Amino acid sequence: SQTIHQWPATLVQPVGSPLSLECTVEGTSNPNLYWYRQAAGRGLQLLFYSVGIGQISSEVPQNLSASRPQDRQFILSSKKLLLSDSGFYLCAWGVGLETDTQYFGPGTRLTVL
Amino acid sequence: AQKVTQAQTEISVVEKEDVTLDCVYETRDTTYYLFWYKQPPSGELVFLIRRNSFDEQNEISGRYSWNFQKSTSSFNFTITASQVVDSAVYFCALTEGSQGNLIFGKGTKLSVKP
Fold first, then answer.
1. Cβ of A102 and B102 within 8 Å?
2. Inter-chain contact B99–A43, Cβ cutoff 8 Å?
3. Among A21, A26, A29, A66, which Cα is nearest to A46's?
4. Residue B56 has pLDDT above 90, yes or no
5. A58-72, pLDDT tens digit by residue?
6. Interface test with chain A among B30, B55, B102, B108, by most A beta carbons within 10 Å
């Protein structure tokens, strides 16, 4: 069966520090991978998605970036965090190119101080 | 543009009551998928159901049921005989484009009190 892991589970970082969040999927090949952010009091916002290694599409311009160095690994990064980057970051995977169900990881709660 | 509206921000019920969560969507696509997800206090989104635009049959899964009506662009979710464990935020979502990017509503927080 497929499983999705995210780490760390929680993170407290100062403004201006770098960020690296990791997501890995097990039990499937060539999944679509997604990064979402859920800010306090707001809905879920799609940040990036990837349909393959090295292929990243950005939905929202910001100081975050994403990379997919391996088939089942998705990394969210920032060189300098802003206060507004605080939130709950969720990684998701889906198989197939069109309107497929997305399965979510446990999430990372990021607080930028 | 695609949009999902969950007008109910919060709902509070007493255990064993039935509760319906509303979802209204907008899309110009003729082919689309609708979803419901549950987000318990732990934070992880749990998939509940996917329904395609060509299947308007209602679906029942245990205490959960879904009513899809294209005429009113609604995809409502009913929990029968609610339980405390049903307390969570529930999100309705719609896919757009060929990559299956989900457009989420803002969610409805359901509190079930004993």
1. yes
2. no
3. A66
4. no
5. 888 689 999 999 999
6. B102
Token pair recorded at residue B112: 């079930």
> How many Å from the N-terminal Cα to the C-terminal Cα in chain A?
38
pLDDT at A80: 96
**Taking Cα atoms as reference points, which of B90, B65, B64, B86 lies closest to residue B4?**
B90
**Residue segments in chain A with a per-residue pLDDT below the cut of 50:** 99
Strand A44-52 versus strand A32-38 pairing type: antiparallel
- Using the Cβ of A101 and the Cβ atoms of chain B, whether some distance falls under 8 Å is answered with yes
Measured in angstroms, the CA of A95 and the nearest CA of chain B are apart by 10
Tokens standing for B93?
């979502």
Q: CA angle, B51 as apex, B48 and B53 as ends, to 5°?
A: 160
Residues of B with CB under 8 A from a CB of A: 31-33, 35, 37, 42-47, 50, 52, 91, 95, 98-102, 104-107
Tokens 């100081």, residue located: A63
Number of residues that make up chain B: 114
Lowest mean pLDDT of A39-48, B9-18, B81-90, B91-100, name the range.
Answer: B91-100
